[in-house]
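TA notes, week 10

Several of you asked for a full example with nothing omitted. So below is the full record: structure tokens for the whole chain, then the designed sequence directly under it. When grading your own attempts, check the secondary structure regions first.
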């Protein structure tokens, strides 16, 4: 098995220490950081996403794999910046105002990073104003809103309405998700998309990028 294949296997298995080891060996052998990222880390997270969709993996396995992937990304990041590799898109994400749940949001964030997005994670309890300021500052392609409570879900609407009022809504795509969120709600508040889990959030986001 090649180093890259071993790296991918260990991401899928969620073995962060081995992922660090193989990422370092791959760099030491002179492999391009972009190749290590695409054929090792991202390819592995694609497999993880497929396994999740097929019910072979559940949330814990996906979280562990995503953490292992992050261990590799951490080592690659400075080298990727040096080589000037471009992310496939920029994604701002946060849990909406009043809501402190971040496990699902972090999972979406990690899977997006694994798919090659540059991710700006605003954290939890993010007000509409903070989302708007982030759109102005980072000019993302997509903004992701997460909510776990039926009460805070209403702040997704408030955020989109405030984005409209300040004129930034048309600059970005807005996707929403979280346990209480439904397609009907997404349509009602005029979000551009809705995803039930982290793997489908990646597919959704990729499909919303400009051609
Ligand atoms: Co809270 N909580 N909680 N909680 N909590 C729920 C959500 C609840 C359903 C439990 C219950 O009553 N059965 C309930 C909500 C009821 C409702 O509104 N209908 C609830 C409640 C009531 C509360 C408090 C109000 C409790 C209290 O204090 N009285 C309080 C609120 C605090 C606040 O936010 N202001 C509260 C607090 C907490 C803890 C702090 C203790 C903790 C959060 C810790 C943390 O996140 N750091 C917590 C937890 C852990 C839960 C449960 C048990 C688990 C949530 C979770 O992490 N799931 C939850 C019950 C449950 O869901 N079984 C519950 C795992 C995670 C991977 O899934 O977040 O759904 P999930 O994310 C998925 C998808 O939803 C989707 O992808 C993710 C990965 O597949 N997704 C997106 C999520 N965001 C997305 C964004 C996207 C796309 C997809 O695009 C942008």
């Amino acid at each position: 098995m090649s180093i890259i294949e071993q790296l991918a296997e260990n991401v899928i298995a969620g073995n962060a220490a081995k992922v660090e080891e193989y990422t370092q060996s791959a760099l030491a052998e002179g492999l391009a950081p972009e190749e290590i990222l695409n054929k090792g880390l991202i390819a592995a997270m694609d497999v993880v996403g497929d396994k999740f969709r097929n019910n072979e993996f559940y949330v814990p396995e996906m979280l562990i794999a995503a953490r292992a992937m992050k261990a590799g990304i951490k080592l690659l990041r400075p080298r990727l910046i040096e080589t000037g590799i471009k992310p496939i898109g920029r994604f701002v994400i946060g849990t909406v105002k009043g809501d402190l749940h971040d496990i699902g949001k972090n999972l979406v964030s990690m899977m997006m990073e694994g798919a090659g997005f540059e991710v700006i994670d605003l954290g939890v309890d993010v007000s509409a104003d903070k989302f708007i300021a982030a759109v102005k500052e980072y000019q993302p392609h997509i903004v992701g809103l997460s909510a776990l409570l039926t009460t805070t879900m209403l702040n997704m609407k408030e955020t989109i309405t405030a984005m409209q009022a300040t004129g930034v809504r048309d600059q970005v795509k807005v996707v929403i998700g979280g346990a209480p969120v439904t397609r009907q709600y997404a349509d009602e508040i005029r979000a551009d998309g809705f995803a039930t889990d982290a793997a489908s959030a990646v597919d959704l986001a990729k499909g919303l990028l400009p051609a």
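The pocket of CO-5-methoxybenzimidazolylcobamide is lined by residues 59, 93, 98-105, 107-108, 144-146, 148-150, 175-180, 195, 197-198, 201 (CB under 6 Å). Use that as a sanity check on your answer.
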